[in-house]
Write a structure and sequence with these properties.
By secondary structure, the protein is of the alpha/beta class. It is built from 3 helices and 4 strands. The protein has a single domain, classed as NAD(P)-binding Rossmann-like Domain (Rossmann fold, 3-Layer(aba) Sandwich). Strands 3-2-1-4 form a 4-stranded parallel sheet, covered by helices on one side.
């Protein structure tokens, strides 16, 4: 299967490890995280890889924010054919950071 479009929480943790590998295959990757500085660093570090990185910032504690992110994901170029679910791993002692 050729990966055409992927979604990963990616500013840190496991997602941060997956994204460069996926981009290296040429796949477009949609990454969401609430760590804006981490997303910017990831973008900088992956510039020049064959795939294209799209980024968003869903707030997993806000249903409307998540719905908006899902809508943006569905509207992104290419078809979504894989999801790397690694969000919700504990950071700062709380899952949501709040």
């Amino acid at each position: 299967m050729k990966l055409q479009h992927l979604n990963a929480m990616a500013a840190d943790g496991p997602g941060r490890q997956f994204v460069p590998e996926l981009l290296q295959t040429g796949a477009p990757v949609l990454s969401g995280d609430n760590n804006v500085a981490g997303l910017r660093a990831l973008k900088s570090e992956t510039d020049g890889l064959p795939g294209r990185l799209h980024m968003g910032r869903p707030d997993v504690t806000d249903e409307e924010s998540v719905a908006r992110f899902v809508s943006e994901t569905a509207a992104a170029p290419g078809s979504l054919n894989a999801l790397v679910q690694c969000g919700g791993i504990f950071r700062d002692g709380f899952m949501s950071g709040k």
